């Protein structure tokens, strides 16, 4: 009970996790009384219906389950213990609906507290695959160039807000963003194939995009010259650097206008990546009623799953629930501190002139 109270002043029982004890509660006994024989969805659903319900294809689920087996345990030694496959499908269904835990608990025939523990454990296990599926590479330079003829780009960077329930009366206001709701401000970079190459999901919603970048490992890698003479593209919320190019706020010449047009079209890849991610996994588009550590695990886990879907070339799926996706972030206050604009000026003069 202490863990739930640490992160929330709400009595919403969907907050994970009220207890880690294995003792059988009244709720579990009630769930046991209504439990039916669990369906093998790998056999009962055709490929299209399976992918729509669980957001991953059957081959992708089989591969992922093999990778997760060392981290997954049957949650009960009593009858009706939940198999690793059903644990994964319950979690994927939770990501696909972004709904209350009781809905996915009934889906597999377990109690809500058991469903909560399953979502926690599977999300953590998938998040541990981060380094295997999310990493920075420079293989998209030519593909980025084909978008709008912007040279030497290896990534686009931006932040997006992931809604959460107010964590607590003590630290809640740190998570209230400038639009008035509680969130994590999640920074990510993507390649030209709309795959994540880096995701940072630990900053409260009130944090400015530039602050997240300036305190990230990514900036340290850029400062160290790890990516050579290649650039990332960011919006005006970021500082313009020799490795991070931002748009001109007031373009005057034709060359500056061409630079801005190419910049906007190329940087749009990160906006598209966020959109596909949130439509495929509405849990990150709706309000998460989870403790902070579990919300972070879900954010990272779904970003890993997003890359898996891109690797399998799975079609972009419409959301199964109604979503209100926000438009691209518009920044009322651009980055105003001293910036390194020499690299940008040389590029405009020599390439976009």
Automatic annotation (TrEMBL):
Give the DDE Tnp4 domain ranges.
157-307
What are the alphabetically sorted keywords of the record?
A: Hydrolase, Metal-binding, Nuclease, Nucleus
Single GO molecular function: nuclease activity
Q: Which InterPro entries match?
A: HARBI1-like (IPR045249), HARBI1_dom (IPR027806)
Question: What's the protein name?
Answer: DDE Tnp4 domain-containing protein
Magnesium listed as a keyword: no
Q: Does the keyword Acyltransferase apply?
A: no
The main location class comes to: nucleus
GO annotations of cellular component type? nucleus
The Swiss-Prot or TrEMBL record lists the needed cofactor(s) as: a divalent metal cation
Q: Family, per the entry? A: Belongs to the HARBI1 family.
Q: Tell me where in or outside the cell this protein is found.
A: Nucleus
